[in-house]
């Protein structure tokens, strides 16, 4: 989509509000010109020709023009600001929507802070261009054209001076604008880089202090600041150059107008009143050109921001799928699924076949990095297979309506995210209907009831950013409770109980087993004691499923599973022995 079409789409339903702001600006400019024009009448007719009876009329018109100007001068910024705020909301909403619908792999290409900067910097500046700068540029342009015509009517010589000025400004703004655009993008990119580093520096404070890496961190910061400093200074130099061109143009024109006007007045070619308004009109014209020039340079500057934001907004959203999800989900199958995170790297999953029947407990086990969590990501549709298919009741997962699928699935990830809100908000997470009975049952199953009993405000206790005021085990209990509240048909637990003490883990596992009738449970686990009762255990190595079966079946013969299980049992026994 072209930028102009994109802008028109953005200001959809706002054309009336935009027209109103243009109209107010035009009227504002008109009343301003009128206050100058009236001076000729006052000087030539009332003062010089002595038509004193007209004084009251002139003064009344002056008053009307000044009052109108004052009203319009306060009204137009109000309308423009309103438009600007609506546009900010629209751009930010579009950004948020796009970021939440593009493939996860795209999202991961940039750090989160970069996107945050697009929200609180770029969106604001783009809205300012559209709602304020462009209307003001049009106001300046229309005023400049009107003044050129008035001045041309007063004196052809002045018209030549004025045209010379317009052409010079046009050439200068085009030449300088292109240079500004390049350097401005560089400044914005370096600024974002610096902000990203600052945010990450703050987030990593614990590691930086613990590993005594403050000077290392400072060196990186200084390096980035130096780069930013250099481009800002280059931008400053360019701005000086621009002023070096535009200022002499402005004052040169003023001097030419005064010189010529005074000469013409002295030789009675023009009246005193005409000389006074001619000088003021010329001054206003130069000021308007200057404003227009500044805005054009500014627009070139901000063009870089449009490009940056549109690079995100133009990203292809992930296919949503249209097919309704059958009830109930009888089976999920992975058929020859191969998946690679990044191009030109080796596959993380290779020709994986899985069968996950309804109501069964299915376990994925294997060494670290063998691809277990990636399977959860594919189930969540955060990633799509490069080859092979995932089918739900024989229907391709991709063609199923995403919202329907995600409503029937819950995942407890290894590192669950918590909002800095109350425990209740974090548990319910926007679910529309959660009965007190269901909530209470889930709290008991996950032992969150024990946790909130000790908190001063119970469920309404606010937890810190990312749940930092809770222990790892407490966070895991909350995450399991959150997943169960949705009452999903498929529950995926990715190392979801790894931080719990043995007794709590045993209790929660027992509860999950007791209440899993009709629910498919997929468990990714290192602690094999938690999955011995699984209906199917898939053993993974290097992205492949190398074994499958029940615990008893897999314990027969020389299997990878048996090796893993025996090693864990031995390890546990050694630990028990070494405890005095
Ligand atoms: N976002 C990502 N981008 C690139 N590579 C990734 C990404 N996430 C995981 N990987 C790689 O994919 C491989 C499989 O990772 P995955 O998290 O699926 O393993 P896992 O079996 O769940 O490991 P663990 O038991 O340690 O959690 C690893 O080699 C990992 O480095």
Automatic annotation (TrEMBL):
Residue intervals of the ABC transporter domain: 332-567
Cross-referenced CDD domains: ABC_6TM_exporters (cd07346)
Compartments, as annotated in UniProt: Cell membrane
Keyword Iron: no
Classification via InterPro entries: AAA+_ATPase (IPR003593), ABC1_TM_dom (IPR011527), ABC1_TM_sf (IPR036640), ABC_transporter-like_ATP-bd (IPR003439), ABC_transporter-like_CS (IPR017871), P-loop_NTPase (IPR027417), Type_1_exporter (IPR039421)
GO MF terms, alphabetically ordered: ABC-type oligopeptide transporter activity; ATP binding; ATP hydrolysis activity
Protein's name in the database: ABC transporter ATP-binding protein
Organism name: Tumebacillus avium
Lineage summary: Bacteria, Bacillati, Bacillota, Bacilli, Bacillales
């Amino acid at each position: 989509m072209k930028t102009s079409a994109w802008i028109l789409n953005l200001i959809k339903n706002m054309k009336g509000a935009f027209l109103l702001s243009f109209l107010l600006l035009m009227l504002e400019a008109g009343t301003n010109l009128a206050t100058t024009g009236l001076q000729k009448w006052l000087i030539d007719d009332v003062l010089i020709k002595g038509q004193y009876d007209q004084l009251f009329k002139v003064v009344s018109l002056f008053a009307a023009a000044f009052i109108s100007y004052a009203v319009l001068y306060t009204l137009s910024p109000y309308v423009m600001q309103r438009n600007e705020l609506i546009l900010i909301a629209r751009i930010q909403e579009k950004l948020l929507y796009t970021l939440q619908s593009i493939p996860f792999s795209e999202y991961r290409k940039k750090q989160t802070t970069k996107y945050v900067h697009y929200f609180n910097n770029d969106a604001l500046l783009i809205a300012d261009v559209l709602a304020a700068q462009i209307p003001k540029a049009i106001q300046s342009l229309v005023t400049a054209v009107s003044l050129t015509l008035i001045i041309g009517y007063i004196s052809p010589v002045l018209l030549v001076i004025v045209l010379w000025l317009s052409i010079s400004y046009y050439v200068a703004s085009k030449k300088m604008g292109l240079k500004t655009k390049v350097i401005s993008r560089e400044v914005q990119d370096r600024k974002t880089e610096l902000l990203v580093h600052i945010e990450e520096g703050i987030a990593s404070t614990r590691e930086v202090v613990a590993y005594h890496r403050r000077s290392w961190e400072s060196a990186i910061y200084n390096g980035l600041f130096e780069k930013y400093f250099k481009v800002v200074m280059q931008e400053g130099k360019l701005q000086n150059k621009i002023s070096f061109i535009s200022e002499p143009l402005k004052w040169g024109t003023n001097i030419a107008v005064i010189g010529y006007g005074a000469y013409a007045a002295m030789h009675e070619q023009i009246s005193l009143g005409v000389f006074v308004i001619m000088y003021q009109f010329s001054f206003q014209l130069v000021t308007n050109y200057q404003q227009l020039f500044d805005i054009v340079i500014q627009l070139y500057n901000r063009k870089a921001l449009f490009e940056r934001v549109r690079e995100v907004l133009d990203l292809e959203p992930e296919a949503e799928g249209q097919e309704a999800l059958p009830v109930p989900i009888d089976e999920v199958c992975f058929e020859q699924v191969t998946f690679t995170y990044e191009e030109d790297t080796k596959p993380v999953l290779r020709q994986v076949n899985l069968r996950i029947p309804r109501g069964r407990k299915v376990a994925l086990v294997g060494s670290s990095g063998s691809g277990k969590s990636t399977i959860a990501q594919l189930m969540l549709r955060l990633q799509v297979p490069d080859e092979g298919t995932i089918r739900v009741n024989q229907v391709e997962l991709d063609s199923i309506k995403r919202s329907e699928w995600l409503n029937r699935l819950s995942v407890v990830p290894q590192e669950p995210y918590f909002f800095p809100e109350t425990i209740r908000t974090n548990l319910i997470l926007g679910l529309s209907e959660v009965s007190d009975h269901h909530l209470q049952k889930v709290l008991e199953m996950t032992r969150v009831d024990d946790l909130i009993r000790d908190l001063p405000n119970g469920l309404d206790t606010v937890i810190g950013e990312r749940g930092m005021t809770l222990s790892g085990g407490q966070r895991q209990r909350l995450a399991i409770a959150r997943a169960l509240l949705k009452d999903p048909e498929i529950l995926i637990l990715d190392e979801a109980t790894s931080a719990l003490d043995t007794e709590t883990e045993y209790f929660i596992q027992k509860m999950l087993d007791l209440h899993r009738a009709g629910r498919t449970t997929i468990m990714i686990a290192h602690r094999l004691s938690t999955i011995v009762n699984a209906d199917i255990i898939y053993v993974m190595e290097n992205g492949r499923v190398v074994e499958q079966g029940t615990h008893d079946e897999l314990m027969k013969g020389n299997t990878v599973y048996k090796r893993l299980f025996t090693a864990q049992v031995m390890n546990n026994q050694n630990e028990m022995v070494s405890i005095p």
